[in-house]
Amino acid sequence: SEFAAGYCKRLATTHYENFPLVSWMLPPKLHQDFFNVYAYCRWADDLGDEVGDPAKSLELLSWWRAELQDCYAGRATHPVFVALGETIKRHTIPFEPFEHLIHAFEQDQRLPQYQTFEELLGYCQNSANPVGRLVLYLVGAANETNFRWSDSICTGLQLANFWQDVARDADIGRRYLPLEDCQQFGYTEADWQQRVTNDSFLELMEFQVARAESYLKAGLPLVARMPGRVQIDIDLFVAGGLKILHKVRQIGFRVWETRPKVTKIDAAWMLLAAVGRYGARQVMQPFWSRTQHG
């Protein structure tokens, strides 16, 4: 178990450059649980994205699901699941969010494009939203109201990443701009194949950016519902998504030519702002309590 915990910690801290910052805001007693969940997600992601052969990926993801089932049956042998089993018990985490992630990575192997925005939302429900729900279980804030706000944030973040990475995804044969939306804005298949930036494309992207923004903003009430400094984490996730969308706007939606990037300076300003908002909420809390109960 100690070996398994160390394995997950190494995987999280070497793969994920923002972990020191994220973990500064989390209660120390939760660090290992976050490492364990991250290690699970990292493995599933790599089995989906790093293999380079869809049939082989599907086979490996099926093996990963069997390992997850063994973990829930108390038969874990893989170090990730030995460690994760402890986290699952401690926080009473159900099977579904973990399984949904595997389902999303399988979907990536089978479905390179989406007909409608509804279909794309279905993908986000499996690929993004479970991560937010897992965080809520870990911080003891898992309930239906929080799930709704968290899902909205996670979907908004996923959409922001799609619109940032239109060209990069096209390079690996994936297309997240719904075909129905392309048709609605008059962006043709030939335009797509040639990566044409025309008025249709710019209007299409403007529409998608506004839609992603509305999902992120709709989840904002979650921030104040989080315990302690976890508020800063959630605030930062939303701010990061909004910043990506702002950068897409700044380049005039020309994402074929330029991949908008959030810089380290942007990140530093966002952190300062999130800490400032957290401080303001702490100061105002007694006042709000008095006015509500007064």
Can you offer a commentary on this structure?
The chain is mainly alpha-helical and 294 residues long. The chain has 16 helices and no strands. Helix 8 crosses helix 9 and helix 15 (230-250) packs across helix 16 (264-293). The longest helix is centred in the C-terminal third of the chain and has 30 residues, at 264-293. It is globular and about 55 Å long. The mean pLDDT is 91.
What proportion strand?
Answer: under 5%
Order of helices and strands: HHHHHHHHHHHHHHHH
Mean of residue pLDDT? 91
Task: Provide the helix percentage.
Answer: over 70%
Report the count of strand segments: 0
Instruction: Report the uncertain regions.
Output: none
Radius of gyration: 20 Å
Separation of the first and last Cα atoms: 51 Å
> What is the global morphology?
globular
Query: SS-based structural class?
Result: mainly alpha
- Biggest pleated sheet: none
Give a quick summary of the entry.
The protein is an all-alpha fold and 294 residues long. It contains 16 helices and no strands.
List keywords for this structure.
mainly alpha; single chain; 0% strand; 294 residues
Topology:
Layout: H1 2-15, H2 19-25, H3 31-49, H4 54-72, H5 79-91, H6 96-110, H7 117-127, H8 129-138, H9 144-164, H10 166-171, H11 179-184, H12 189-194, H13 199-218, H14 222-225, H15 230-250, H16 264-293
Helix pairs in contact: 1-3, 1-5, 3-4, 3-5, 3-6, 4-5, 4-6, 6-7, 6-8, 7-9, 8-9, 9-13, 9-15, 13-15, 15-16
